Amino acid sequence: MTENLAKAPAAGEFRLADAHCDTLTVLSPWRLAFGGGGSQLDLPRLAGRAKLQFMACWLGGGAGLAAAAALRRLWQHILDLRYAAALSGGAEILRDLALAGQGGKVQLLSALEGLDYLADDWRLVDQLYAWGFRSFGLFWNNDSFLGCGAAANQTPGRDGGLTAAGRELVRHLAAAGWLVDLAHASERSFWQAAEILADAGRPLFVSHTCCRALCGHWRNLSDEQLHAIGASGGMVGITLAPQFLRADGRAEAADWARHVTHAVELAGAGRVCLGGDWDGVDILPCGIAGVEDAGALYRALLAASFDADAAAGVMGDDLMAFLRRLGENLRQMS
Predict the structure, then answer these.
(1) 125 is in which domain, residue-wise?
(2) In the prediction, which pLDDT does 119 show?
(3) Does residue 7 sit within a domain?
(4) Confidence band (pLDDT; 50, 70, 90) for 12?
């Protein structure tokens, strides 16, 4: 396994790796590269401490969007990300997951959030992978030709789970060894996808969520789901969305650390990371203005009795190790 990594952080330091942001929906490539766009994240603020950032592409739910139009926008996402990385000089696109966390530049991982627009032919995911997308989020909140999104969790009896097409797509992604993101999936869709992924020996991944036992929001995961993620060797990202952290929405960094603590208790050490959802939420926890304040999250973990190594794991090391394992598996399959 590849382990020629950058120098490990000293005590009290961490390397940041985050599993979700929506920044390219609010910033031009120029603003992403140079900052000053009023966002919660940009490349200048990632420079130095950050090692890896998932960059989500969300097409507004995708309902009614023709595949050809969607593909043009997805290709533009890839071009914009490449342009921003080139402009900054300090970032690069991560295509080989086995190299996650290596090198001196911030690595940007292109991720898909919702695949509604592939109703005509979901096999277009192969083209998307060839372009550079490395994480495939099946849903946003709405239902689609793939099945039920997380919004179905709000109404008892409405959750029909995956459709036949949804199950076939998950089998295809699992056979290829590609990363399937189950954030925004309904509970039944989650469990049906989990069964398919388990049959293929693939880990479960949820990029951004919180713990339902601590806050009953319909996007949060049950204890059983958290345990299943850990048992699969997977990874769950705990988000900064205040309404996911506290019912009253008055969240602080300590509330995020409380959800991380609970997730670790269920999923296990090394299975929980930051899934910030930068620029996907209008308001962040008190004291967090943007990614530049990630140190407050690290300190909140220390205050919650994580030791320095465990806190550094949550802040980035464990997510990068997870991706490297996936990448090594892909190399062995090729």
Answers:
(1) 16-333
(2) 87
(3) no
(4) low
Distance (Å) of CA 83 to CA 58, 70, 112: 19, 20, 19
Query: CB neighbours (10 Å) of residue 173?
Result: 22
Phi, psi of 121 (to 5 degrees): -165, 95
Looking at residue 60, what is its pLDDT? 80
Mean pLDDT calculated for residue range 239-251 = 98
SS (H, E, C) 315-326: HHHHHHHHHHHH
- Is 164 within a domain? yes
Burial letters 109-146, b for 16+ CB under 10 A, else e: bbbbbbbbbbbeebebbeebbeebbbbbbbbbbbbbbb
Is 18:314 a contact under the CB 8 Å cutoff?
no
132 located within any domain: yes
Going by C-alpha positions, the residue among 323, 333, 13, 16 that lies closest to residue 175 is 333
DSSP 116: G
- In a domain? residue 4: no
- The percent of residues above 90 in pLDDT, for the chain, comes to 90
Q: Compute the average pLDDT of residues 189-207.
A: 98
Domains in the chain, number: 1
Q: What is residue 261's predicted lDDT score, i.e. its pLDDT?
A: 98
**pLDDT tens readout for residues 262-298:** 999 999 999 999 999 999 999 999 999 999 999 999 9
CA distance linking residue 84 with residue 72, whole number of Å: 18
Whether the model pTM is above 0.85: yes
Tell me the DSSP string of 254-312. Answer: HHHHHHHHHHHHHH-TTSEEE---BTTSS--SBT--SGGGHHHHHHHHHHTT--HHHHH
Average pLDDT over residues 67-71: 91
pLDDT of 65 > 50? The answer is yes
For 110, residues 6+ apart whose C-beta sits below 8 A from its C-beta are: 55, 57, 77, 78, 81, 93, 131, 132, 133, 134, 135
CATH number at residue 57: 3.20.20.140
Instruction: Round to whole Å and give the CA distance between 227 and 223.
Output: 6
